[in-house]
Amino acid sequence: MTELSGDWDFVFKSNSSFNISTQLSVAGLEFDGATQAVPGAWDSRWGTGLQYARGTGIYRRLLSIPAGRPALLKFSACSMFCRVY
Fold first, then answer.
1. How far apart are the first and last CA of the chain?
2. How far apart are CA 18 and CA 8, in angstroms?
3. In sequence order, what are the beta bridge partners of 36?
4. Helix, strand, coil percent values for the chain (each to nearest 5)
5. What's the pLDDT tens digit per position in 20-59?
6. DSSP type of residue 12
7. Torsion of CA 24, 83, 73, 60, to 10 degrees
8. pLDDT in tens, 56-79
9. Three-state DSSP class for 23?
10. Nearest-CA neighbor of 20 among 76, 73, 82?
11. Could you tell me the pTM of the whole model?
12. Alpha-carbon span 12 to 72, nearest angstrom
């Protein structure tokens, strides 16, 4: 088992500039070095400039899964909407 808690790459898109239903292209996302702690909530963490912000928070974590091996991702919480790629 691999524990995935820790700092994940993170990008925030405001509701006014981004529509996840029509604009999300994983290949086109630009991560600028910002991170967010997992577990955690980006919109409640002080000091990020995003407290109480509304929009889409996009997390990225790279991991290696050996070919032919089963894998299971377990999410203990996902609020409002979650899409996994």
1. 20
2. 21
3. 8
4. 10, 20, 70
5. 555 566 677 788 888 888 888 877 777 777 777 777 888 8
6. E
7. 40
8. 888 899 888 889 998 888 887 777
9. helix
10. 82
11. 0.75
12. 26
**Between β-strands 6-14 and 55-60, what pairing exists: parallel, antiparallel or unpaired?**
antiparallel
What letter represents residue 40's amino acid?
A: G
CA max distance for the chain: 43
Structure tokens at 53: 């912000």
Half-sphere exposure of 39 (CA within 13 A, CB side): 7
Helix, strand, or coil (residue 64): coil
Q: Distance between CA 30 and CA 82 in Å, rounded?
A: 19
To which H or E segment does residue 28 belong?
Answer: none
Residue among 9, 3, 13 at smallest CA distance from 56: 13
Type of residue found at 53: A
In whole angstroms, give the CA distance from residue 13 to residue 41: 15
Sequence-separated (6 or more) residues with CB below 8 Å from residue 53: 12, 14, 43
